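4.2 Preliminary Data

To establish feasibility before requesting continued support, the project team ran the inverse folding procedure on a target of 165 residues. The structure was first converted into the token representation described in Section 3, and no sequence information of any kind was made available to the design step. The complete token record follows.
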């Protein structure tokens, strides 16, 4: 079974992480959700990343706010794909988190989704997994097809409404 680890810098980030967990479970991926801080528990972050592949993890999502170094620290210790999930902050509305995650040094890439973009983090992890797991790729195709059908239905309803003006 496909396995995604979801790490967050603190328990308060769970509301942002929850949509990722939900979409991953909806598609049948196994999840491991942990609170690991790049700054408060750096040894644990290192150990997790260094052993992630051996423990069956295939993709890692890292949610963090403010300095948001978790994804970069994890990416420094693994060759697995790491997805950064910036968390909205009071200080700069999440721009601080986004810039901390997206501005990685050369050689340590971290894919990044939008601020509080938990669902997109989960979907990106699924797209990565879909390369290896045809059943996930098929579910993603169906998901996108249904999304397009809903947009088309919404557009048709809007066109009908406009005719009646």
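Position-by-position output of the design step:
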């Amino acid at each position: 079974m496909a396995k995604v680890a979801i790490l967050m810098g603190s328990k308060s980030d769970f509301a942002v992480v929850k949509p990722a967990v939900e979409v991953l479970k909806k598609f049948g991926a196994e999840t491991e959700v942990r609170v690991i801080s790049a700054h408060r528990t750096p040894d644990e972050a290192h150990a997790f990343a260094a052993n992630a592949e051996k423990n069956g993890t295939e993709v890692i999502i890292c949610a963090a706010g403010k300095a948001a170094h978790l994804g970069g620290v994890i990416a420094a210790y693994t060759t697995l794909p790491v997805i950064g999930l910036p968390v909205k902050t009071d200080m700069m509305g999440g721009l601080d988190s986004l810039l901390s995650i997206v501005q990685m040094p050369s050689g340590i890439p971290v894919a990044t989704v939008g601020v509080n973009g938990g669902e997109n983090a989960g979907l990106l992890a699924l797209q990565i997994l879909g390369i290896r797991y045809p059943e996930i790729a098929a579910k993603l195709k169906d998901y996108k097809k249904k999304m397009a059908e809903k947009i088309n239905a919404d557009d048709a309803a809007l066109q009908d409404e406009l005719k009646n003006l």
